Amino acid sequence: MKEFNVALIGYNFMGKVHSYAMNNVSFFFDNTVKITKKVIVGRTEHLVKQAAETYGWEAYATDWRQVIERADIDIVIVATPTASHMEIAVTAVKAGKHVLCEKPLGLNADQAKEMLDAAKRAQVVHMLGHNYRRVPAVSLMRKLIEEGKLGDIYHFRGVYLQDWLTDPSFPVNWKLKKEVSGSGPHGDLNSHLIDLARFLIGEIDRVVGMKKTFIKKRPKVTTPQSLSSNLHASSDAERWDEVTVEDANHFLAEFKCGAMGTFESSRLASGRKNHEGIEINGSKGSMVFNFERMNELHYWSKDDAVDVQGFRTILVTEDVHPYIQHWWPPGHIIGYQNTFVNQFADFIQAIVTGEEASPNFYDGWQGNKVLDAVTRSVHTLTWENVE
Amino acid sequence: MKEFNVALIGYNFMGKVHSYAMNNVSFFFDNTVKITKKVIVGRTEHLVKQAAETYGWEAYATDWRQVIERADIDIVIVATPTASHMEIAVTAVKAGKHVLCEKPLGLNADQAKEMLDAAKRAQVVHMLGHNYRRVPAVSLMRKLIEEGKLGDIYHFRGVYLQDWLTDPSFPVNWKLKKEVSGSGPHGDLNSHLIDLARFLIGEIDRVVGMKKTFIKKRPKVTTPQSLSSNLHASSDAERWDEVTVEDANHFLAEFKCGAMGTFESSRLASGRKNHEGIEINGSKGSMVFNFERMNELHYWSKDDAVDVQGFRTILVTEDVHPYIQHWWPPGHIIGYQNTFVNQFADFIQAIVTGEEASPNFYDGWQGNKVLDAVTRSVHTLTWENVE
Amino acid sequence: MKEFNVALIGYNFMGKVHSYAMNNVSFFFDNTVKITKKVIVGRTEHLVKQAAETYGWEAYATDWRQVIERADIDIVIVATPTASHMEIAVTAVKAGKHVLCEKPLGLNADQAKEMLDAAKRAQVVHMLGHNYRRVPAVSLMRKLIEEGKLGDIYHFRGVYLQDWLTDPSFPVNWKLKKEVSGSGPHGDLNSHLIDLARFLIGEIDRVVGMKKTFIKKRPKVTTPQSLSSNLHASSDAERWDEVTVEDANHFLAEFKCGAMGTFESSRLASGRKNHEGIEINGSKGSMVFNFERMNELHYWSKDDAVDVQGFRTILVTEDVHPYIQHWWPPGHIIGYQNTFVNQFADFIQAIVTGEEASPNFYDGWQGNKVLDAVTRSVHTLTWENVE
Amino acid sequence: MKEFNVALIGYNFMGKVHSYAMNNVSFFFDNTVKITKKVIVGRTEHLVKQAAETYGWEAYATDWRQVIERADIDIVIVATPTASHMEIAVTAVKAGKHVLCEKPLGLNADQAKEMLDAAKRAQVVHMLGHNYRRVPAVSLMRKLIEEGKLGDIYHFRGVYLQDWLTDPSFPVNWKLKKEVSGSGPHGDLNSHLIDLARFLIGEIDRVVGMKKTFIKKRPKVTTPQSLSSNLHASSDAERWDEVTVEDANHFLAEFKCGAMGTFESSRLASGRKNHEGIEINGSKGSMVFNFERMNELHYWSKDDAVDVQGFRTILVTEDVHPYIQHWWPPGHIIGYQNTFVNQFADFIQAIVTGEEASPNFYDGWQGNKVLDAVTRSVHTLTWENVE
């Protein structure tokens, strides 16, 4: 029986889903592994206390440094806003912990490089939380592309569209403040697309992008206290807060393999909820994926007889498909949460075998480089190399 | 140059689309054929006169018997309500005319048999207007099934759903009167499904059905005069008319090949406009078609590698697909009207070559037999053989 | 803290997913409830032992009677083949246990009635495992129909299609033996459709059906020993086993509300994996659902302006949708397993509040009546009342 | 009876579909208009002769100048490669003919401006052949956007994908030679997207683009003579021809209204045949269209109740929808060719009423400006204003 004690830094959405993954990984993957949810960490005591109870953690804490120092912690999961990734992750790897860090890795490539270097020096397992690589349909795409099913790659087009900011009364939270999140959908959503692009067809050479903040002011987040004071607020400054990140960020790209790429991310795409869509066209075939139908992969093959060529809707729920032998019979589809179980299983597998995790901090560094190049291009108004 | 003079009996929806077909057949199929739209026939003079002008007929007439007697008419198209099909078609074939008759062929199998016998005796070309056989995707289904792509056939499921009767104020027209139309969606829509079933997988052995009229009374058709008199109508009988056909008719079937079948037709299926949907499951594959996306055929093949099996959406617009070489380049989809041009081209081809048309009055007779057996079963409440 | 100790009878597919549900219910629904997975029961010791380890049960056992007698068991889950449901469930309710039983409830309506009567006498909570009621999209259908969104119901059409028997070398397991399973897809799949039909639009009045076994002999299940003896088998009887249930079972139905229904179930529908599809048409709207895209509900409303009417694809992942507040943010879809967590949460809720569970053994009895009537009709070849 | 005599310059694909439109416009739209197909013009006599016969032209000619001089010609349709548009169209308008010119209008904005100026001076009706404006679903989009259904527009994304160049043995035709076509998919496909973008949400301010030729050499077009000489060809130059246009061209855009745009065109998108796809996101709703399902419009509205929001698939075949009253009953879908009939009907309508056609040469000029700005940006590697 292999046993691992985990500390989780962060307790919101990502905290919930990582807790879920830990609860279920041995059930589905390997019942010789025992994961103990030791301690969950957050700055606001009453909230992290409640999370600890709901999600079943042995303990909670408010000081992540103390937790990382504990000798009984094997694994640290960093699920905080981006601005604190580097400090926490570097401290954790220096303490010899294996680290699974949420994306994007750093606020920029320099931070990411520092994290990578620290992790390498510490010789721990480091992983980046791009859970979408663990969608069975996405893993299948990778496998088919590696088998040459698409031939030479000509086009990659990715869109990651959400609409939670279309309501102008949605208040400013940390995701809308640059000093905490680094950027808007660029770091939040484009980072996923970039990771999938790299995973599926390789590195990006150069980019040119644009971004825009359509709704520049939003209500301040209201706490019970602020709410009552807001009622009497006399100035705009007290009621309104500035949005300091973009609402949407698009870019063109050229890949090392020669392919042309387009990337779009937005939080203002009405009706699109978590629409992470990818299309890849190659000389021998094409593939289309959309997370909102994550159990399906659309695949067109030139190898089919001409009269029956067409995009196939592969229901990726067969035993032969990646990860599915751990789940349910054909046609019994899985959901978002399963990708985190798959991810955690792979993370544990890397720790047990000593192999590199994928994606890891190197991938995070490469991803940050692309994000940075796009951001530079928005200012220089010209193409920027990824370097 | 082959020349054919046509008389068209009927001038409503079917009159319009047959006229269209004649106008365009030589353009797309064979410019050595000249079709002359000699005379269009209807009972209401001012309406048929207007149709003649709009659709470009040389003349119009109100007496179909006189028209059929004319020596210069080669082809008669019967596009009248079902109750008059037999009389007109038998007269026409006896006069040596080639006949294209709308579906269902007769009010019942006896009528259809009489029509078939007359046509055979007259040695003319006889065709039945099941235009949906001429949808390229449907023709492709037939071809693939003949090639054995589906293996043994287990299931046929057909639905033909419309919703034009969901509005209870829709008035009683001829389609809602049994003495004129014979039946409701059974003859109108199930006849199409039955023809496609026979075309694709063969004869039906036995059936059991049910039917229902949900909305039993509807407003009388209002003419300008009736409208004003209706305002003063004192009795229900003057304002309301009885619906004497069913709103929906479903049945189970067993095919000669052993397959199980389900058939559904309704005019009360909200949101379904002309939803003629078919699914066939066989030991080696499946196919799905829906007229509202008539340019697409969905095909699943067991021959595909297991990890990439899936329903393909074949866009049936390639040169290698049936009829398409006459139309447009790939991806430039065709519409409802094209099926009538394809049909008329095949009809002319049969006349020119002397080969049998398909479907012909024999098919109409078989179709009427199935319709009759379902109707008997509705009354006997038990399975009825198709005989 | 409410605490419940559970015994699970059965350890295969259903055993796995019920175990999963128990593991996760407090995490997602109510962390004041503690579920203890006390003992899992099966006849084959080495297999149930392994299941106990994989799924995290405190103990395993091979004699369900002894387990049910234990005073520390509060809840019994019956996840065995249908033939043993009655005996186990009746014993369990008599022992005062709350029972969640897999579907169909009994081998026939008489058994189901006995189970219902026993459960009522025992005044325990009894629930039937029709997990598909707990698909958020299905719950939403129910809510919208109750609100009158569909108006008068005209049509219900349900298909439940799988293809795991298309391979003729698939061996005979318990699901293919009538003495164990009672029937083929009729009890297995139609039971689900019937439950959804009753849940959504009410009781069924009369039915007429058909069934068919296309592949009548299949290889015997091979155990390591049987495999070696099979190599030397000299007679067919030793290698082949008879399939004693149907491969497919379809029926027509009339509902108490007047609606017409069609039901189809098959295990020979190539390409269909767990395709549980439902369409309901009413005077004011229509709805379409398919389990393989279980996060989506298609809804057409006559209330929309005429120029923008159309089937909406509702992504049922919003906080306002049933169950979703317990799961993830919009667009982060859920899977098959979630329906069992929802179901178990509702079961526990019923136990805690003392309210009736839904569906319960009464629903199971009604469902068995419909199944029985269809089976009678297959033999009498005529319509049979559900009674 | 209004009568118009037409000369058509060009006889290939566009020649065929324009001929079709003229044949059918009075049938569907206005039987008081008589269109006479006077003369079809092409440089290769035996081919244009054959086209004249197939498409039913009174005469053919090889010298377009002589034809334009004829007093009996009212309308000239320019359906030649782009390089000759200006000369033919300017000559025609100077001769007082109404002109319908294929897209893109000129090789560049300067040419387009000259054409516009000449047409305005001549006071004739001038129209540009962007037939996709006449897809009923696209017209409906425009109407709904004008009604404010989408609110403020945030995003426009257009892709126009084909795959006829994925076969490397496809030979070099005029569309692959810059001196004849001006560009590849940029002028051919992006011009359509740009026109739709302008039609739907207004002018484009600035752009940055990229283009690529993946397959740089292709076989020479083989004529019977060249074929035999090719067999003995000793040099590459004799067998291979250089592709002088791009295979794909993408760009980012900012609209005057503030919206962000992405545009992609490719002839190397395997499996995409004529995939012209558009998505527009606004503050109150979104719309999605794809030509390969041209009878459908997907529309999401924030005005719907929250629990039933979803993308509606509007089947644009109702009488209330643009153009449909001229066509078929609900659910009887139309095809590519219908857009040309709609277009020609509008063109004739403009001539009869003296109103401006839409789109006209002004639109063509604006479109050419955008194309030019993208082309400049490909060379300058920076954003270029549309001016």
From TrEMBL, chains A, B, C, D:
Keyword Oxidoreductase: yes
Signal peptide: none
Gfo/Idh/MocA-like oxidoreductase N-terminal domain residues: 4-130
GFO/IDH/MocA-like oxidoreductase domain location: 140-287
Record GO terms (molecular function): nucleotide binding; oxidoreductase activity
Protein keywords: Oxidoreductase
Record's protein name: Oxidoreductase
The species this protein was found in: Pullulanibacillus camelliae
